[in-house]
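Good morning,

Attaching, inline, the backbone tokens for the sequence recovery test we're adding to the shared suite. The designed sequence is right after.
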């Protein structure tokens, strides 16, 4: 179970970083009035209305939940009376 939780954390961390990197690149291009080179939006589209932003929000929520799960699992391992895991 520990390795599964750790793998989930790593995958979501990578997805979180990738999604926000794409969104930030898109946002900078929009501020500089350049076309988006990533393919998330057409030129002139507001970045907050693109799939890149939605994906970044989704990965952020999933990553936060992964951190909560990891902390709960660690707490459960230190407490012999815990029957949550």
């Amino acid at each position: 179970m520990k390795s599964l939780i750790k793998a989930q954390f790593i995958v979501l961390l990578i997805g979180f970083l990738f999604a926000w990197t794409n969104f930030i690149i898109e946002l900078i291009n929009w501020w500089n009035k350049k076309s988006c080179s990533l393919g998330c939006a057409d030129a002139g589209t507001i970045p907050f209305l693109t799939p890149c932003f939605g994906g970044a929000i989704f990965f952020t929520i999933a990553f936060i939940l992964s951190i909560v799960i990891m902390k709960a699992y660690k707490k459960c391992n230190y407490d012999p009376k815990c029957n949550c895991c």
